[in-house]
Amino acid sequence: MVAIHPLKKIWLDGRLVEWPAAKVHVLTHGLHYGYAIFEGIRSHRALNGPAIFRLREHVERFLNSAKIYRMKLPFSSEELHVACKDLVRANGVPEAYLRPIAFSGYGEMGLDPTNCPIQVAVAMWEWGAYLGKEGQEKGVRATVSSWVRNDARSLPPQAKCAANYANGALAKMEASASGYDEAILLNSSGMVAEGPGENVFRVRDKVLSTPPASSGILRGVTRDTVIQLAQEEGIEFRRVDFTREELFTADELFFSGTAAGITPIREVDGRPIGEGSYPVTRRLQGAYDDCLRGRSPRHEDWLTYVA
Ligand SMILES: Cc1ncc(COP(=O)(O)O)c(C=O)c1O
Fold it and tell me: Given CA atoms 110, 115, 117, 123 in this order, what sign does their dihedral have?
């Protein structure tokens, strides 16, 4: 984890405020009951200036999370796009992680958030690769968690709701306490779901696969990017469930996520994965990086320039 260094501004309820002024009351409803939905987005220094990657898709997922939770957002998709762009410009930091969040605010207590005001903020900070630069290069060590991914019948994983991350935090803390870099959670049927903040991909006999949305995962924007890039690179791809032991027998495994990027997994529970080289992962890392930095004319529409 990395300490946050304050930048200048945060967008809060429709306007840019000074960083220290972006505060909420301790009786903020969402703080008590986890009724908050959020996003994680990155901006990069691209060829033609600072650009936010797949902003449209992230805002769309934000609106879908709100819909699942019956949350009425007081801002439109267009207003949220402008908020993100204004924020990156106001802070003058091109390489950043953006965190839009909407939550039930101060006003009432009790489980039903219907009458609480909904507050919306977008913050940003400088954040390197979530699983480390070295992890992205050399691969990380993962463990299969004893915690099961929250089931769609109790907490819908396709909504990026703060409450889901209590499940993720249990898995992450367990992994860290046992000396691993990251956890892999199985779903309630015992099949591989995802990491606490990443999707999982497997390569076996040159075929790339990832669990389908029905396995109880967040439909990652990076996951979607990887799938499109794999198809363009001529890599055979399947959306298919796989078991815990199929993790161990993979030729390559990697995590994908906005925070983690594409990070190879070099070991799962003490078993080295493949031969320690990651040819498919490396190709996808390269293609992904080209997209983020505006070197892929074909995917220029994935970039929203902030200038
Ligand atoms: C639980 C979970 N799965 C997967 C992902 C990857 O999603 P994305 O690629 O959109 O960042 C994230 C990150 O947002 C996540 O929190």
Answer: positive
C-beta atoms surrounding 218 within 10 Å: 24
Distances (CA, A) of 52 to 100, 127, 219, 258: 13, 14, 19, 11
Give dist(CA 82, CA 127) in Å, integer.
22
Pocket test of ligand 1: the residue of 59, 130, 218 to mutate, having most ligand atoms within 8 Å of its CB, is: 218
Is the beta carbon of 210 within 6 A of some atom in ligand 1? no
> Does ligand 1 lie within 6 Å of residue 198's CB atom?
yes
| Complete domains list, the chain, with CATH | 9-125 (3.30.470.10), 133-292 (3.20.10.10)
CA 254 to ligand 1 centroid distance, Å:
13
Distance 194 CA to ligand 1 centre (A): 9
Does any ligand 1 atom lie closer than 6 A to the CB of residue 267? no
In order along its 307 residues, the chain shows pLDDT tens digits of 778 999 999 999 999 999 999 999 999 999 999 999 999 999 999 999 999 999 999 999 999 999 999 999 999 999 999 999 999 999 999 999 999 999 999 999 999 999 999 999 999 999 989 999 999 999 999 999 999 999 999 999 999 999 999 999 999 999 999 999 999 999 999 999 999 999 999 999 999 999 999 999 999 999 999 999 999 999 999 999 999 999 999 999 999 999 999 999 999 999 999 998 999 999 999 999 999 999 999 999 999 999 8
Catalytic, 160? Answer: yes
pTM exceeds cut of 0.85: yes
- Whole-angstrom Cα distance, residue 124 to residue 5? 10
Evaluate: CB of 264 within 6 angstroms of ligand 1.
no
Structure tokens at 159: 């909504």
